[in-house]
């Protein structure tokens, strides 16, 4: 008897604002009279995303949106509507660093307007919090500038944490350690994308130099039992994204995904879409996948949501459904 996952309360910690747009959303916005100046044919032609290169090509198909937080606000509105329809009650969204000015004062103004709009779209049914994500390949000097700006955003209460994303191969965390020391000293919660494209050594590098309390992906962490022990001992939460990992080629077959083994090993894990527009997935489809292909029960799916709410970076829960899930 398949489980109906539609009404299970859900929480998502790993979704990129610039990974959400899909052709249906583009058309819906156009019908509202909002023109994103994105070529629908080019966006359609970017599918299917099936490896790292096609994922970047998908992003390039609407690179005209880069730096246009005003346009991304419309995408966020539709995204939050969709999350509400999927009974997602808590979500953290990664805003790419490049959407904002590097000037701290300007960035505060830009993000304050976006932040206020996002709260309105949540309508008391879902709490949406913002993080800033920046790329591993940006180099130390740029990462320091981004940090100075991000610390102002954090002090202003506009973001609840930061995320290191971008190409993993050839860009270890170690050279960025001085930046992570600054975030850590300021009390800013840190998430690092790791063990998606590299082996367990990527997580060891992140743990040694980045002060993360959460890892994104962790696709190959189970290859290293000592790493699993360390993640358990340090209570590091891992945000797992099965469909994303299949679409980008991080795993060859969905059966290879470790989320079932991670849960059974007692790890603190949750499930997320990463880039639902690119991978044509949703929180509901991820839950259905886990039920159908990995035998997750309703209680286990509920536990993933509760794990996510408890691993959140925003200490304050503001909506009743998210408070209820935290206690599940
Ligand atoms: Zn990601």
Explain this structure to me?
By secondary structure, the chain is α/β, with parallel strands linked by helices. It has a single domain, classed as TIM Barrel, CATH 3.20.20.140. The chain contains 15 helices and 8 strands. It has helices at residues 23-31, 40-45, 52-60, 69-85, 104-122, 140-155, 177-185, 201-209, 225-233, 242-247, 259-264, 276-279, 283-294, 298-310, 320-326; strands spanning 10-16, 88-96, 127-135, 161-165, 190-194, 214-217, 237-240, 269-271. It has an 8-stranded parallel sheet. Helix 7 links the parallel strand 4 (161-165) and strand 5. Helix 5 crosses helix 6 (140-155). The longest helix is centred in the middle third of the chain and has 19 residues, at 104-122. The chain is globular and about 50 Å long. The model has no long low-confidence stretch (mean pLDDT 96). It binds zinc ion. The site of zinc ion has 6 residues, from strand 1. Residues 14, 16, 165, 193, 216, 274 line the site of zinc ion (ZN). Belongs to the metallo-dependent hydrolases superfamily. Adenosine and AMP deaminases family. Its cofactor is Zn(2+).
């Amino acid at each position: 008897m398949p489980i109906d996952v539609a009404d299970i309360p859900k929480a998502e910690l790993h979704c990129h604002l610039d990974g959400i747009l899909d052709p249906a959303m583009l058309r819906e916005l156009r019908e509202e009279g909002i023109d994103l100046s994105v070529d629908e044919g080019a966006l359609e032609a970017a599918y299917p995303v099936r490896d790292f290169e096609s994922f970047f090509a998908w992003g390039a198909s609407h690179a005209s949106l880069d730096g246009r937080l005003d346009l991304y606000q419309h995408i966020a509105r539709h995204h939050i509507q969709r999350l509400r329809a999927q009974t997602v009650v808590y979500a953290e969204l990664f805003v790419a660093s490049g959407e904002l000015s590097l000037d701290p004062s300007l960035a505060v103004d830009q993000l304050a307007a976006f932040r206020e709009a996002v709260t309105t779209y949540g309508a008391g049914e879902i709490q949406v919090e913002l993080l800033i994500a920046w790329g591993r390949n940006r180099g130390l000097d740029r990462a320091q500038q981004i940090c100075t700006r991000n610390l102002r955003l954090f002090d202003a209460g506009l973001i609840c944490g930061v995320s290191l994303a971008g190409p993993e191969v050839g860009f270890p965390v170690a050279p960025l350690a001085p930046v992570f020391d600054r975030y850590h000293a300021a009390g800013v919660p840190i998430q690092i994308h790791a063990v998606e494209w590299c082996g367990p050594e990527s997580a060891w590098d992140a743990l040694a130099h980045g002060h993360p309390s959460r890892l994104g992906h962790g696709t190959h962490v189970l290859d290293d039992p000592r790493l699993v022990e360390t993640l358990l001992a340090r209570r590091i939460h891992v945000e797992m994204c099965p469909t994303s990992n299949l679409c980008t080629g991080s795993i060859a077959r969905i059966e290879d995904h470790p989320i079932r083994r991670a849960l059974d090993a007692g790890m603190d894990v949750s499930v997320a879409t990463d880039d639902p527009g690119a991978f044509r997935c949703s929180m509901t489809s991820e839950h259905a996948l886990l039920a159908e292909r990995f035998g997750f029960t309703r209680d286990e799916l509920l536990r993933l949501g509760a794990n996510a709410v408890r691993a959140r970076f925003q200490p304050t829960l503001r909506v009743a459904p998210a408070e209820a899930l935290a206690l599940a």
